[in-house]
Specification:
The complex is a heterodimer of chains A (323) and B (422). Chain A is of the alpha/beta class and 323 residues long. Chain A is built from 15 helices and 5 strands. Chain B contains 21 helices and 7 strands. Chain B is α/β, with parallel strands linked by helices. The chains are: A alpha/beta (323), B alpha/beta (422).
Chain lengths: 323, 422
């Protein structure tokens, strides 16, 4: 058993190692072949391989010394306009030595940048295109200002499908000699919804208990790590306690870092299982779809989702009236 | 020409009581008391008029003197420091009729402006004169309940002047506009009136500043006033939105808010639900807020701020008009937006958390902020359960003892891990 975070240890090193996002990977490989990369936006929920793809692209492009040609900036930690002005500019304008005339700047969580900083970035991108290519990673591409979007090739990452997710988790369990039971894998997918980073972290957390990893163990781990109990929240709303449900939503989003799109996916699933009148189910599914779209468009996760919770409060009230 | 630029508060000062804005009962009391002097000296020889600035205390006395055909001897109270002035005042008050046979009112204005504690003697002198006055003495102050006036008060008929309502003030402004040949929009005048908070004088001053020399006065001409001195408190703004009856009224609340649009949004988003008891109303209001948020996103993406008007429409009028069946059930306080509230963690703890986050970031390609949400919870589990794995990870991440202790929770448990560290 080795002692580091498995999510890092098993992060793919080359584009060829990536298990999913096949069409994206193919296009990135063609960038490597032509030794040219446009500015890119990698958009998609957490744990779907955006940063990994960017790092793999750099490694494949420059070889093992790729670190010299690469800068990783995290917009959530330093999202001010000054960082863009100073750090980014200094990096972007200095010429790269070697076969490839440009460097790569990965701007992670770019949707957390203020729009002022984004405006400043837009000019920098334009001015130093010759010497620097930008890869902007974001959960929601809609939060990137349009002038930047139009300068970038868009790539949309999606949650890993079941088989690939399971395959990857099983592969790691095998390498780390963890006894992983079938219902354990299933449970990991159920609670992490295809967010591979969370899936791997969950596996490692479960493995630290030194017991065979089954569904019960996985649920107890995730219960402690991120009680993303969507079902409980929906019940609270249907019973008429809007403020209580909103509080639960806020905890999921703020305290435990669950992605809005992930919650939406689970709500969508739960709606059809919930005990509410049949015609309401389609109405709520429609609203769920609208909220899903709005999130991608760049709206506030909590505000949009709590509008959906208010609809559930309304649905619960209608039901009570019907008896 | 000079008259053109005279202050409108002087130029359009009410001549008779019929023109006075508001306070009909105070006027009646004062009028009755003044007229009672013709039947002999009443029990109270002085009237004490009190009320906030600009509600029409002085002008009421002047108008009544005009209507009752009495001579008004007006003194500004700041003159009453010297013995000489007090004596002159005593002389005036000692006679009912004036030199020309008319009846007389002695008015002492701005009483609270003059005396500090040092001048207690001055108040006593005035009290003594009031006790023996042979003509009506009117005293004016903003507050009658200043402790310095305690004795004086007992000799006086107290008359409370209240703040006139906005509609009455707006009517008066309309009258002035007509006399000035200005065509004014009703909502523009209402806006000025509301902003004045019952201070008619300041409303007239504002009107002059905004309308003088214009042929027409629109709402757009006046709305910028909101950014000037007097700001509605956030609670009044919220009340206007959450309990607003008209779309326009709710929208106007934005101009009065002391906070920016995003912060106002948070206030509404925090507070509206508790004030909407009906589930349909609630769903409708939350939907309006979600729509406002959609337009906010569109502004952000396109950098086109002209969409701001739709953000405002939805977050104010949209929320106000959602109220159909909700009952006003008791008093519910407005709360500071809890989303904005700082984490309850202490500053030192936040700093430590940030340092751990930065350590994780170095290795895991994830922001410090996300690391504390997404990686730290798993580290806690691992550190509590598997000492060897924990030690390995601590070494790999380059965590120090303090950080390990924070993650596992106790010093004892941290010790079991840190023994393995170099």
């Amino acid at each position: 058993m080795s002692f580091e975070m498995w999510a890092e240890k098993y992060r793919p090193k080359h584009l060829g190692d990536m298990v999913d996002q096949k069409t994206i990977v193919e296009r990135l490989k063609s960038f490597v072949r032509s030794k040219n990369v446009p500015h890119c936006i990698f958009a998609g929920p957490p744990g779907t391989g955006k940063t990994t793809a960017a790092l793999c692209l750099a490694r494949d492009l420059y070889g093992e010394g790729y670190r010299e040609h690469l800068m990783e900036l995290n917009a959530s930690d330093e999202r001010g306009i000054n960082v863009v002005r100073e750090t980014v500019k200094t990096f972007a304008r200095s010429r790269s030595i070697g076969e490839i005339p440009f460097k790569i700047l990965i701007l992670d969580e770019a949707d957390n940048m203020t729009s002022d900083a984004q405006q400043a970035l837009r000019r920098t991108m334009e001015r130093y295109t010759e010497t620097c290519r930008f890869i902007m990673c974001a959960n929601y591409s809609g939060k990137i200002i349009e002038p930047i979007q139009s300068r970038c090739a868009p790539f949309r990452f999606t949650f890993l499908p079941r088989e690939e997710h399971d395959g990857y988790i099983k592969h790691i369990a095998e390498r780390e000699s963890v006894q992983l039971l079938p219902d354990g894998v299933e449970a990991i997918f159920e609670v992490c919804g295809g967010d591979l980073r969370r899936g791997i972290n969950t596996l490692q957390g479960a493995a630290s208990m030194n017991k065979p990893v089954d569904a019960k163990l996985v649920y107890s781990i995730t219960g402690k790590a991120s009680p993303s109990d969507v079902q409980k929240m929906l019940t609270t709303a249907i019973n008429g306690d809007f403020l209580g449900a909103r509080k639960q939503l806020r905890d999921m989003l703020q305290k435990y870092g669950v992605a809005g799109v992930d919650i939406i996916r689970q709500i969508h699933k739960e709606i059809f299982r919930a005990e509410i009148p049949e015609p309401l189910k389609m109405k709520l599914a429609g609203i769920t779809g609208e909220v899903d779209f709005r999130l991608v468009e760049g709206s506030d996760e909590e505000v949009q989702l709590s509008a959906l919770l208010a609809k559930l409060v309304e649905a619960g009230y209608e039901m009570k009236k019907l008896g | 020409m000079q008259f053109l630029y005279a202050a409108w508060t002087v130029k359009h000062k009410p001549k008779s009581t019929a023109e006075i804005v508001g306070n009909p009962s105070a006027l009646k009391t004062l009028s009755d008391w003044l007229q009672s002097w013709s039947k002999g000296i009443p029990k109270k020889r002085a009237a004490f008029l009190y009320g906030s600035p600009g509600v029409g205390k002085t002008v009421s006395v002047e108008a009544l003197a005009h209507d009752l055909n009495m001579e008004l001897v007006e003194k500004n109270a700041s003159d009453y420091r010297t013995e000489d002035a007090i004596n002159r005042f005593a002389g005036l008050a000692s006679q009912y009729a004036s030199l020309f046979g008319g009846k007389r009112i002695v008015l002492l204005d701005e009483l609270d402006g003059l005396m500090g504690n040092a001048d207690k003697g001055g108040v006593k002198a005035i009290s003594d004169i009031v006790k023996t006055a042979r003509c009506p003495v009117v005293l004016i102050a903003n507050s009658a309940y200043d402790p310095r006036f305690r004795t004086l008060r007992s000799y006086c008929l107290l008359i409370d002047f209240k703040k006139p309502i906005a509609n009455s003030i707006a009517k008066r402004l309309q009258y002035i506009c007509e006399r000035e040949g200005i065509q004014a929009d009703e909502n523009a005048l209402k806006f000025i009136a509301q902003r004045s908070e019952g201070d008619v004088r300041s409303a007239v001053n504002d009107l002059q500043a905004l309308a003088q020399g214009k042929k027409r006065l629109t709402y757009d001409d006046v709305s910028w006033l909101a950014y000037r001195d007097r700001q509605e408190s956030i609670f009044n703004v919220l009340r206007m939105i959450v309990y607003g009856r008209t779309a326009l009224g709710a929208k106007q609340a934005v101009d009065m808010a002391d906070v920016d649009i995003d912060m106002l949004f948070e206030w509404i988003y925090e507070n509206a639900p508790a004030h909407l008891t009906d589930p349909h109303d609630l769903a409708q209001a939350m939907d309006a807020l979600a729509m406002a948020d959609v337009y906010r996103g569109r502004i952000h993406a396109s950098q086109d701020w002209s969409y701001l008007r739709y953000v405002i429409d939805f977050m104010t009028a949209g929320v106000a008009l959602a109220r159909q069946n909700s009952k006003v059930s008791g008093w519910i306080p407005f709360k500071f937006p809890s989303r904005i509230m700082m984490l309850s963690r202490s500053k030192a703890q936040r700093a430590l958390l940030k340092r751990i986050g930065l350590k994780i970031r170095r290795k895991c390609h994830i922001s410090a902020a996300r690391a504390s949400k997404e990686v730290l919870p798993y580290l806690r589990i691992i550190f509590k359960n598997d000492v060897h794995m924990a030690a390995g990870i601590a070494k790999w991440l380059d965590l120090d003892e303090e950080m390990v202790e924070y993650i596992v929770g106790t010093k004892a448990k941290a010790g079991k891990i840190t023994v393995f560290l170099p």
